[in-house]
Amino acid sequence: MNSNLVIRVVDDPAAIDAAAWNALLEAQPSATPFMRHEYLAALHASGSASGDSGWTAQFLAVYEGEQLVAACPLYLKDHSYGEYVFDWAWADAYQRHGLAYYPKLLDAVPFTPVPGARLLARDDALRGVLLQAIETLARQAKLSSAHLLFLDAADERVVRAAGWMMRASVQFHWSNRTPTPYADFGEFLAGLQREKRKKIAQERRKVAAAGVVFEARRGAEIGAADWDFFYRCYCRTYAAHHSTPYLTRDFFARMAATFAEHWLLFTALRAGRPIATSLIAIDSARGAAYGRYWGATEFVDALHFEACYYRPLEWCIAHGFRRFEGGAQGEHKMARGLLPVETASAHWLAHPQFARAVADFLEREGAGIDAYVDELRERNPFKGATRSLDSGSSPE
To answer: Is 169 helix (H, G, I), strand (E, B) or coil?
Structure first.
């Protein structure tokens, strides 16, 4: 390692200069808004991802002199909630053998299953420095394991070279047509198979017939009352699943103050009253949008699909966006033009026997994922589709 490098572990992202962190992020091949300092700092300061909620910050910052040359968001976790890469069975196996799986180290964006850069660095050598620092922290603290979730190809090169175990999962993303983008939503629908077009048209008619109309607000147009109603809907979604919301109202207040340009809010109204919302994150510079949260105060058949897929896709097409990521899991998204994309995570386990057992499991699971993607490929919803679905792109 370069002897001029200094590695610091900080328990609050605010201890790292925001401009330096964001400049490092923007240099990455797969930057997303969720890795911006403002987003991570708001998660911490609002108590959404803090020690009290089981996300103890151990951010790594690598300096060469006074210059930040590498960094990553690292957490000491005493549970596996809010990760979307499921290792509960591993934790259970440890417990059954009288071993502690928690705490563990996690490089991820809390509650945000969006693929992108995790090891922020100016080259692979510095990514390797970060990875080695993660391993060293885990060994020194006698932790069971370390994990990088939803990492990009640049990170994957480094973790594979270091011998970490890889795990695949599947998401569903929409891509605009290339090289000529869709002119409008109707042209997008025209490319789908007849039964898919018919189903979408039926769902949209149900929502319209129920008297529901939509308003879209972007950035600073989203007022405090809009955020309040959104948060009410957000909490109702968790209550319907007998769960507790991960994110506090203060987190969204901070988003409105420091991150407003990255949000798009759709509000459904009936008889002039708001009854549902969907919140979309947007990255205008890269033409990318991300479905994040939704909720409703009353039931309308097919309203979820309208709010979470059709309205966002219409907006993306109208604004020339290149892709829309629908979030974790959900085969039903495929019938609506979102295609399967494999995502990757990387795992290091300290215990040699457990590491071998998990490696064997991941090999078998990986074969199952490959077969699953092959099956999905046979169900391409587009007319005359012959191209691979791995890229998540729609037919040209």
So the answer is: strand
